[in-house]
Amino acid sequence: MTMDDIDITLMLGVKAGDIQCFEQLFAKHQKSVLNVIYRYVGNAHLAEDLTQETFFRVYKARESYQADAKFTTYLYRIVTNLCINELKRRKPLYSLDSSPEHTDNIPAPELHSTEDPELTQRVKAVIAGLLPNQRMAVVLNKYEKLSYQEIAERMDISVKAVKSLLARARTNIKEQLEPYINPVRDIQGKL
Q1: In principle, which of 2, 54, 73, 121 could form an S-S bond with 153, CB 3.0–4.6 Å?
Q2: In the chain, what is the straight-line distance between the N-terminal and C-terminal CA atoms, in Å?
Q3: Half-sphere exposure at residue 147, Cβ-oriented, CA atoms within 13 angstroms
Q4: What is the dihedral angle through the alpha carbons of 7, 63, 50, 136, rounded to the nearest 10 degrees?
């Protein structure tokens, strides 16, 4: 029996009213759900709240659960929708002009060969400022190391749409960081 089969069996148990199956699913997936949400929202308290909301929704929708896909696909569709809706609901928390104390909770991707704290803060701010779908695709790809296919399943979009989201996110990140990465070329271009 594979891990996917075990998860599906547990969720079918939840559907049948077995609270212990729900507790097992929660214990198994809570940490990874919390990590994804934290990387997306950049706030530990909000991430904890959204993690609880995720599992509340899993439990609430138990009777309509269909075992036609991996449980993790089902679970991360809920996570993705909650995160995107939360970001749309709130006004942007960060901008390129945010001071470091406002972006400390946003994790920065590994910056190879640089220890520039200002650049790290800029990267965090740029990632925080991406459109919601772009940001989720980046989080799932760069932090969770998921394949395009896995991202597509979790976001309930096509692989082609994932590639497009990531390409646009890379372009946005590159454009916004260009003055900080190549300041001499930027200054020369303005002369």
Answers
A1: 73
A2: 66
A3: 4
A4: 70
Concatenating the DSSP letter of every residue in 6-20 gives HHHHHHHHHHTT-HH
- Is 78:86 a contact under the CB 8 Å cutoff? no
Q: What is the pTM of this model?
A: 0.70
Vertex 158, ends 26 and 3: CA angle to 5°?
Answer: 30
- Burial label, 43 (beta-carbon count in 10 A; 0-12, 13-18, 19+): middle
In tens, the pLDDT along 14-70 reads 999 999 999 999 999 999 999 999 988 888 999 999 999 999 999 999 999 988 888
- What CATH number corresponds to the domain at position 34? 1.10.1740.10
121 and 178 part of one domain: yes
Residue of 125, 35, 124 lying closest to 83 (CA atoms): 35
**CATH code of the domain containing 107:** 1.10.10.10
Q: Contact at 8 Å (CB) between 27 and 55?
A: no
